[in-house]
Amino acid sequence: MLQNDTPITPELVASHGLKPDEYQRILDLIGRVPTLTELGIFSAMWNEHCSYKSSKKWLRTLPTTGPRVICGPGENAGVVDIDDGQAIIFKMESHNHPSFIEPYQGAATGVGGILRDVFTMGARPVAAMNALRFGSPDHPKTRHLVSGVVSGVGGYGNSFGVPTVGGEVNFHERYNGNILVNAFAAGLADADKIFYSKAEGVGLPVVYLGSKTGRDGVGGATMASAEFDESIEEKRPTVQVGDPFGEKLLLEACLELMKTGAVIAIQDMGAAGLTCSAVEMGAKGDLGIELDLDKVPCREANMTAYEMMLSESQERMLMVLRPEQEKEAEAIFHKWGLDFAIVGWTTDDLRFRILHKGAVVADLPIKELGDEAPEYDRPFVRRPVPAVLKAEDVAEPNDYAEALLKLVSSPDMASRRWVWEQYDHLIQGNTAQKPGGDAAVIRVEGHDRKGLAFTLDVSPRYCEADPFEGGKQAIAECWRNLSAVGAEPLAATDNLNFGNPEKPEIMGQLVGAIEGIGAACRALDFPIVSGNVSLYNETNGVGILPTPAIGGVGLLPDIDVMATVAFKHAGDVIVQIGRDGHHLGQSVYLREILGREEGAPPPVDLAEERRTGDFVRGIIRSRLVTACHDISDGGLLVALAEMAMARGLGASVKVPESAATPHGFLFGEDQARYVVTVDPSVLDAVTAAAAEAGVEARVLGTVGGEVLDVADIATISVAKLKQGHENWFPEFMAAAE
Amino acid sequence: MKSAVVVFPGSNRERDMVAAIEKITGHRPVTVWHGDHDLPKVDLIVIPGGFSYGDYLRSGAIAAREPIMGAIAREAERGVAVLGVCNGFQILCEAGLLPGVLMRNAGLKFICKEVELRVETTASQFTRGYAKGQVIRSPVAHGDGNYRTDDETLARLKGEDRIAFRYVANPNGSVDDIAGVLSEKRNILGMMPHPENLIEPLNGGTDGRPLFEAALSAVA
User: Which Gene Ontology molecular-function terms are recorded (chain B) (predicted)?
Assistant: First the structure.
């Protein structure tokens, strides 16, 4: 075991992920050589994950405020006003690398971490989602990873008791060596009872709550050196192990304690555990923190200060409490069978001081640990955007019906039922729209009709071709999916997954995507209130597809008028809202049918997006619509097939003669478009309203029968489509390894 | 019309259960903490779903040995109705108040979906609101729902008309498609499906309501 006075060699510095110039910055800052514990603290605070040193400059450009935003980025999660004195608190965070190493625990602790972020602020979690990206279905590890990640997500969320109501699952070979597990959680709180991490008051107790500290996850992020230390070398998993039972107890104990008024500040212990949480609370409140590590509840004997400060053991919290309510607080935690220990005090000297066995093992300036973290303006290059691929230059399918069947049965488009049936999506009894629609909807507890809508979206192939348009599109699609159920989009959280930012072309993707996200957020009044950046997602020098996943939340004043994708009644008229399709570049059709990933992605006209979405939301709320679905991956024909399969009810439609190409019309992925169905009696009202709103509305045909029929082009039974659509996932997972 | 919902560390459908009973009967159940040794006087005791003690060791095994279980056994002996749903069913089996065990689902995966149940007997205060043979809908959400007994016990359950519900399409491998069973005195029901999650239009149906209506109107 290394002692605190271990000589700090250049190798030791490098093994902590600190560059020579970053180490020099530490020397300049403290005026002496750091102790081992101090080096560990710096490496934890200054790594990419905690400091956002490569992305900060660009993240600052995102719109983060709005009339409903109570708290934007910088706290554990974003807080948004949903009327009636209530707030929704949400965030998304990645757990990519751990999930690749150990899929079950990696995914489980990813879910645990994001739930903690939400209830740390005083909210009871009411919805969870996750965006999962795996390698090619043909890759030998894919099945194992899908199986482990899905059981891990379910294993944690189901036991904790939050409904997992939505998400995304995609496959692409660029994730073969680096899968993505992005977990989203949202919780409800009273708007005037939000808890923050800013400590206030000198000499107040700093209290440790929850599970004990072990050696799990020590240096998971920052240390990889073999010659560094014998004891850390003994193949301890760097992936933490989740205890959803412990987390459930922690939730109940925290919410109970918060009601007593004893909590001044609270911060969960996530990445870099005790270090990050203590520094955060002190630095935000302009206070120093002194910790006595002899008081920290430990799971293992003889832990060093270094290990305790860097442990990433799960299900732990740090709080600053009102001293007069200490006993009351302790009783609540003991009732729930959880550890409660006063491990330190707030001070007025702005130092982060760590005591262990009677010695000061670290003594650092607390503000500078965060504020003086390196920040980089990394060089970047924008790759030229590929030329637009004209539909005329893309082959038509030989057989449209076969092509449609192949699309809806393809790995990225097939039903995700195999996944979401392993997640408890019904618990809490408020699920109003289950997984499988455009957005999930839950009723807000305590209200009969008020609801919240949730969706996760991004099209990585678009971002790869054109990061700016791809970033815009991710926001637009998220906003559109919320509108498609009738919700008012409120705000979003972003989880930016990219490769190595030290490569200018990767940095160019990050910059482009953030610019696109910012442009779309501004145009749609859809601020980013929380988020996470995950960089260095590379294996053998090949980066993942740029994947800025967006989680959106919308408000439904009345869930009785929400829309769903399923066709409802034979005889309803099918109307396309928005322009005709023609854009086949980067489309699912191009990739799945022709094996090509080419061209520019569909551009997003943000004004049109807004106009169209506002119109669709309006007609849903006026009860003029019987079903609604956005047009996205796979284009119009896939959207129609999904609406048909959702109810087992067919449709007859016609491609207008004015359409330049039938395959462009049917498979084009042009943006800002929806399909709605309406009763014939209101058709004129809808088309008149569309004309008035400046939105194109084209009657395509009618609902009815057992087949999906495109006049003179394709006829296929809905049952056959559904069979292909539903069978791909279970068959893939059941196939021999 | 009084009811109690028993909460163990790791219970997680107690809020669903409390809300459902309150919506159906207009009376809010009292919640009873696992460490308590006594129960208030009630007409229905419910052990809700969840993962008591994290399902560590075996589902329901640790909860079954808690102080409150002694009180539940005493009340059951007096004839008070006891309903165990999901984890509650597992706890009742582990406590020996119902026969059989619940093992890992045959497919080894957690399953959350709506299933159909056949009402096999109306001779209990839980099922008398349904018709015999009636097929009702109910969500399931469990990883350990595979009900097992020895042959002798199974024969007894059948012979004594104690199988309350069977799955129309068995989702978890349970012996004889059993979804819920009654105690010898017929006042204890254990079932894996969640009737409390199908009680209002928002849930997509109300097939769970008659169970609670009957259970809470049974006591004169």
Answer: glutaminase activity; phosphoribosylformylglycinamidine synthase activity
